[in-house]
Amino acid sequence: MEVGVDIGSLQAVVLANMPPMRFNYQQRVGRAGRRGQAFAAVLTLCRGRSHDEFYYSRPRRITGDLPPVPFLSMARAEIARRLVAKACLVEAFRAAGVRWWDSPTPPDSHGEFGTVDEWRDAVDRRETIRDWLASSPEIPGIVDAILAGTGAVPAATLVDYVRGDLFADIEACANSTELSGDGLAERLAEGAILPMYGMPSRVRLLYHGLRGREALAIDRDLDLAITEFAPGSQKTKDKRVYTAIGFTAPLLPDPSWRPVSDNPFPRRMWMARCVQCHFVETGDTQQTMQNCPSCGCSRGDDESAPFRVFEIVVPSAFRTSFSNGVDAKADDEFLPRGTSSVAEKTDQPPQAISETNTGLIPTTGSHVYRVNDRAGRLFAGGLGSARWCRGGVTLSHQWIDERYQNVRGDNNVMFNAETAQADTIALAAPKITDILRIRPQAVHSSLCLDMLARDAQGRMSRFGQGAAVKAAYYSAAFILRSVIAETLDIDPEEIDISNVRAIELEDGTSAGEIIINDHLENGAGFTAWASQDDNWRRIIGKITQPNPDPDSFMEKLLSDSHRRDCSDSCYDCLRLYRNMSYHGLLDWRLGMSVLRGFADSAYLCGANGDYDSPELSEWLAFSDTLRNTFCESFRACVPAEFGPLHGWTVADRCVILAHPLWHQYTSGGLLAEARATLSQDQDNSVHIVDTFNLHRRMSWIYQRLGS
């Protein structure tokens, strides 16, 4: 109901949830009310989630916040090069006699450049295009027209690219085993030669019926489709609920309904993945490694195993049983489970950025995967012919989840398997784009920036310090994204937080790594810009300078009013509609501490008693408040002081409350002073709890103390 769709005279609109942002709200409620109409009413139903609750208590924000400022990335050389390539190739292929009827079926939405097979076979066509690109006098005029007023790159550079390198890039994409499109233009777009333009090469259909020669379907981008259309999920359309049960190749009525291919998965590969340290590696064959190469945890086959090797597939399309659906008596929200974003590992060494404590690893054209592994259980099924149990069309080469094969029910199908062996797979949405990995060069011995928070024997913290460190890295990533976007004058959504992972530094210290990437396929050069030495120093300087620029993101983040009102994160700093899954982790104070560590290896995060920085100024008082609340909630705990730090005693045990980023096993600084107040017997049984975990899960901490 957005984008100006006029649906007639309405007096009322009911919203089933709080829209993402103010302009979404305005567009949706704006459907009601016409000139001369006395009144219009809007009712918004708020769900029990952090986004809805925030705006429920602040209705003026969803109706009166300032809209985001539109932007154009005029100066990016990558964008200009792709536009020039598109304009030149249109003329070159036209000169070679290629027309729209040479396109594959279904048509290639990226351009009328024919099919990949024809490109390989038609030697004369290739030579004509090679000659046109090498010698056409039209090329300088095309380049000048596209670069007019942009200053993106010198015109001669792009002319040389078209004449010297473009044909070789086309050959590389046409012969690539990683690109799967039948149309040459689609492959060139996926290979970063042509602009994507938001074309639907990543759009996937959920077929829910066949009516005559019309296919009834719902479409989503691949990133969303692997969750919203995964077997077992449900979608509501026209007051009917349809359940996804499997996969198919795109369907055509030629002459009767059939899939255009025998394989619903144009890409299959194997993934080795560790959920403990976030190591990821993919390959065409099954990996034989029995332990995670990064953290050493053992390989397992069940959903609880931290390190697993499994097959991932990229679906062409999704399908239901083609039943009539069921009546939507209630509009329940489907919440995806088991979905995460990961970046493939790299062996490239980090480049140290002088005057900072940061190591950067920029990579172009790297893979980012959004993976749905069904919360570790994977999807089981197989290929065969399928027909709805109550009639309809029989289709071959359909992959049907075993939960819907030859069993009773409206969403099930009569299924004849092609092979006896069942598939066990996860769904993947791969993306080739620019990636930037950010890590500290060194970590002070008083600090713990290890996402696994291990002691000298490799044992992880009993009270969840690793979760606090992980939260600190994610919070730092969102602060970093906001500052980069503000500096480049772009929407923060143009940069994705891929994930964070545990690493080992050159000196053997364990630490973490932030991985960000361009949101657009093939990249737009934003993370590449941030990886340049001067630009990174500029960004980290903006974040850590004592007096932030007026009206900047950092000025608002570190302002007295925000520090007073926001204990961890809010919609004025790190929270957004699209990062709701991170809301429980985000803490701007921890994120700032990590980023200060990226700026200065001598940063101690208050371990020496220096709480002058804005993110630490209220920490000791916050620690005291948390301790008192905990002891009031669990009367067996008695407040106690341990030198400069707060804590409590319970059942003859001493508990010291520490900062989440202080190293609990080397015990330097204030933590060492606190432990010095204990007797030898007390020190042997002392527990150290961090404020991050105590703030978020007091009952869990109390339970861990008891066990």
Descriptive account of the structure:
With 707 residues, the chain is α+β, with helices and mostly antiparallel strands. It is 30% helix and 24% strand. The strands form four sheets. It has an 18-stranded mixed sheet that branches. A four-stranded mixed sheet has the order 23-24-25-26. Helix 4 runs antiparallel to helix 7 and helix 12 packs across helix 17.
The helix-and-strand class reads alpha+beta
- The parts where pLDDT drops under 50 for at least 5 residues are 330-336
Strand content: 15-25%
Largest sheet: 18 strands, mixed
Q: Please bin the fraction of helical residues.
A: 25-40%
**Average pLDDT reading:** 88
Count the helices. How many?
22
Gross morphology: globular
- Total strands: 26
Which value, in Å, is the CA radius of gyration?
28 Å
The end-to-end span amounts to 53 Å
Task: Name its key features.
707 residues, alpha+beta, 18-stranded mixed β-sheet, 22 helices
Q: Could you write a compact summary of the structure shown?
A:
This protein is α+β, with helices and mostly antiparallel strands. The protein contains 22 helices and 26 strands.
Question: Mind sketching the topology for me?
Answer:
Elements: E1 12-15, H1 22-29, E2 41-44, H2 50-57, H3 59-64, H4 77-95, H5 116-121, H6 123-135, H7 139-147, H8 155-164, H9 166-174, H10 184-190, E3 203-211, E4 214-221, H11 222-228, E5 234-237, E6 240-248, E7 251-253, E8 257-259, E9 267-274, E10 280-283, E11 307-314, E12 317-320, E13 326-327, E14 339-343, E15 351-353, E16 358-372, E17 379-388, E18 395-401, E19 413-417, E20 423-440, H12 465-488, E21 495-504, E22 510-518, H13 526-530, H14 533-544, H15 553-557, H16 560-565, H17 588-599, H18 619-633, E23 638-642, E24 645-650, E25 653-658, H19 669-676, H20 680-684, E26 687-690, H21 691-696, H22 698-706
Parallel strand pairs: 1-2, 3-12, 11-20, 25-26
Antiparallel strand pairs: 3-4, 5-6, 6-12, 6-13, 6-18, 7-8, 9-10, 9-11, 14-16, 15-16, 16-20, 17-18, 17-19, 17-20, 20-22, 21-22, 23-24, 24-25
Helix pairs in contact: 4-6, 4-7, 7-8, 12-14, 12-17, 14-17
